[in-house]
Amino acid sequence: MKNKELRELTDKELQDRLEQAEKDYLQQKIQHSISPLDNPAKITLDRRDIARMKTELRARELKINK
After folding, report:
1. 0.85 exceeded by the pTM?
2. What one-character-per-residue DSSP string does the chain give?
3. In this predicted model, what pLDDT tens digit does every residue of 20-56 receive, in sequence order?
4. Cβ neighbours around 6 below 10 Å, total
5. Per-residue confidence at 12, pLDDT binned at 50, 70, 90?
6. Distances (CA, A) of 9 to 12, 25, 36, 46, 50
7. Would you tell me how many other CB atoms lie within 10 Å of the CB of residue 2?
8. Buried b (16+ CB within 10 A) or exposed e, 23-48
């Protein structure tokens, strides 16, 4: 997910997507530890997407508090 797409989401939508992404990420890590995934690089991409979402939420939080 691109930063531009993240900025267009509301806080609630972004929080919901973050929670779902974290659940999916943990599930993939568990599956990968049991048997190798077809595309293990997806784990890295998902982790980066989660970081982007958290960064956008934090930026919004700081902007509100100013």
Report:
1. yes
2. --HHHHHHS-HHHHHHHHHHHHHHHHHHHHHHHHS--S-THHHHHHHHHHHHHHHHHHHHHHHHH-
3. 999 999 999 999 999 998 998 999 999 999 999 999 9
4. 20
5. very high
6. 8, 21, 34, 18, 15
7. 9
8. eebeebeeeeeeeeeeeeeeeeebee
> What span, in angstroms and rounded, lies between the C-alpha atoms of 11 and 30?
29
Q: Which tokens hold the place of 8?
A: 């267009």
Structure tokens at 14: 């972004």
Question: In 3D, which of 3, 13, 42 has the Cα closest to residue 25?
Answer: 42
